[in-house]
DNA sequence: CCGGTTTACTAAATCGGTTTAGTAAATGAA
DNA sequence: TTCATTTACTAAACCGATTTAGTAAACCGG
């Protein structure tokens, strides 16, 4: 015998399916107290659980949204996802998180899958490699919000960090502490945050009259970061300070330091873009640039829900400031 | 104008819905090559995407399973989830991860939500507080696999670690390194892994003829761990070694050490139950007990899929060994 | 006590697919 | 040439809800 359906409840309570449906949707005006009690009893007795699929099919809404993160290993993605989930739970909706693993193919697959499942909207950390798909969603007016990364040539609601300003202030902090040979290491410049972080870097050096040394700008894939760092430290004048472009690059820097027996904070100063949960346990405690992950998640969720509810919203970027949290790894330069 | 449906495609291709459905399900024997091409063209032209809700409603399967983790902050849960996802993706199915946040109410809500969404089965890290619900699912023969924690009095497929043996070997390692005053710290003894870890602890001490000191057994909520540790270290004979019962307790131990200016590995030896991603960056590198997360995920997924496919499976526990990874934090005892 | 309103319902259509049973035309064997 | 089989489809029922339009009975004011 299959699961109990609304029809079973209706029969048991001696009413029609319609009335049971009204009951479930709490439209009690449409029935007598007596009927209401009988339906309640029947539901109880049969241990009836409604089938959301059927409901969603008819209502054309699933009360579910999708989140596609580019890389679940980033602390930032996790924090944003959590925030989005909280927001939607408050609004009696659900959020499904998928990990595109930085792979445009996977991203595409997930977008298609989630849309086939009829989720009401998507928050995407875009790989930015699926321009046609993004464009199409916008054209169809399917509810989407982009997060963290701007998609070129696309007028779409996007929530980002103020990367240029944040990087600028980190570099300024280095300079204020006497550093001049400052390096930056990020993954390849394929997405806007990385490009902007390099931009902020150059701007700060320039504003302080420090000549930009292209050798000090690393932008390569994770597996090559250590090799590049090695190259830097072979120079006659190696960097005295490094900005690690995100938490994953940070790990590489740590491993590099360990292998080469360099002391973070002693051999070179370090600032990391991104919050590190272990920031004050690693030795020494590391200076970080914290993004407003929770607020950004809320904002994105809010923009998405407004679209779902057919409210008008601005179709461009909203940016959030970052906070430089100074710990021991970026102390004043000792020797010149 | 709404989304394109199968009916639109059928009309455009000049065939019936049935034939389009056959096409989508790749049952090409049922149509001429000519028809096939016309349907293909129509789908393309209309940019048609099938609606999974409708399909699932009729087929009574969603090709989706749910994973309910007790606490997403545990590295172990994340690894297992990832493994389960990989497994189901290989089988053309999807996995949805939900976080019960150690809250039985949330767990209940998620079980109900996922079942209402008609997921084909569930993998649960149970809070063990919803016995009636678990029992009911087993009785209904709804596909479920429990993970990490045994539910008392329930004959259900369950995948767990060999906690007693693993803890035993960690304590033996301490003893072999000259420690006798060994403490264990876990969260409250409400679920089987914690109980078993205390059990393995006692067994190892007993086997080595060391008297068990109940004061050295901490089992309290996270926010009280530090207070208890403080109590321990106020003793005339404080512990020289500590086993942290999981990665979250580990953080507390680290914070405690930091606050009290104690040196991990010097002031006391430390082993952590659970893999720590930063294990070799914290100072000193910390000895851990690694669970076979990936294999456990695969096994659970396999047991679940078999149930979904109505294959017969054993309705009891499968246990996996752990590995003691010795690093610097559990070095030989120096002073007596 | 008559016509209109309110109350308390129900029947049937609908959502967008899948699936079953059936059919007309073409092919093939005797 | 005729009957059986195969080929290439289609109509309609179905999955389990929601929702719209409709109705019978009770109520009610004049």
From TrEMBL, chains A, B:
Record carries keyword Transcription: yes
SMART domains referenced in this protein's UniProt entry, alphabetically: HTH_LACI
Keywords, sorted A to Z: DNA-binding, Repressor, Transcription, Transcription regulation
Superkingdom classification of source: Bacteria
Claim: Chloroplast is one of the keywords in the record: no
GO molecular function terms listed in the Swiss-Prot or TrEMBL record: DNA-binding transcription factor activity; transcription cis-regulatory region binding
Domain HTH cro/C1-type: 5-53
Record-annotated HTH lacI-type domain positions: 4-59
InterPro entries the UniProt entry points to: Cro/C1-type_HTH, HTH_LacI, LacI/GalR-like_sensor, Lambda_DNA-bd_dom_sf, Peripla_BP_I
Protein name as annotated: LacI family DNA-binding transcriptional regulator
């Amino acid at each position: 015998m299959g699961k109990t359906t609304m029809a079973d409840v209706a029969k048991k309570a001696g009413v029609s399916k319609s009335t049971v449906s009204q009951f479930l949707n709490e439209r009690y005006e449409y029935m007598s107290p007596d009927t209401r009690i009988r339906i309640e009893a029947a539901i109880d007795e049969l241990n009836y659980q409604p089938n959301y699929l059927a409901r969603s099919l008819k209502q054309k809404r699933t009360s579910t949204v999708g989140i596609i993160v580019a890389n679940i290993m980033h602390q930032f993605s996790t924090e944003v996802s959590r925030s989005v989930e909280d927001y939607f739970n408050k609004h009696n909706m659900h959020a499904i998180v998928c990990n595109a693993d930085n792979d445009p193919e996977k991203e595409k697959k997930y977008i298609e899958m989630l849309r086939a499942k009829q989720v009401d909207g998507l928050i995407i950390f875009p790989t930015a490699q699926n321009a046609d798909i993004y464009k199409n969603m916008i054209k169809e007016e399917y509810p989407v919000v982009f997060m963290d990364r701007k998609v070129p040539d696309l007028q779409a609601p996007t929530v980002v960090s103020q990367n240029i300003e944040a990087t600028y202030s980190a570099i300024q902090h280095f300079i204020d502490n006497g550093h001049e040979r400052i390096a930056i290491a990020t993954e390849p410049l394929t997405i806007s945050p990385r490009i902007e972080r390099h931009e902020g870097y150059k701007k700060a050096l320039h504003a302080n009259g420090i000549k930009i040394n292209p050798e000090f700008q690393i932008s390569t894939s994770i597996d090559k970061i250590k090799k590049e760092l090695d190259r830097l430290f072979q120079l006659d004048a190696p960097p005295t300070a490094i900005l690690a472009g995100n938490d994953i690059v940070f790990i590489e820097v740590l491993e590099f330091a360990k292998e080469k027996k360099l002391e973070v904070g002693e051999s070179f100063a370090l600032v990391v873009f991104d919050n590190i949960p272990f920031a004050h346990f690693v030795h020494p405690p590391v200076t970080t640039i914290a993004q407003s992950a929770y607020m950004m998640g809320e904002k994105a969720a809010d923009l998405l829900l407004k679209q779902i509810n057919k409210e008008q919203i601005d179709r461009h970027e909203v940016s959030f400031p970052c906070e430089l949290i100074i710990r021991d790894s970026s102390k004043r330069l000792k020797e010149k």
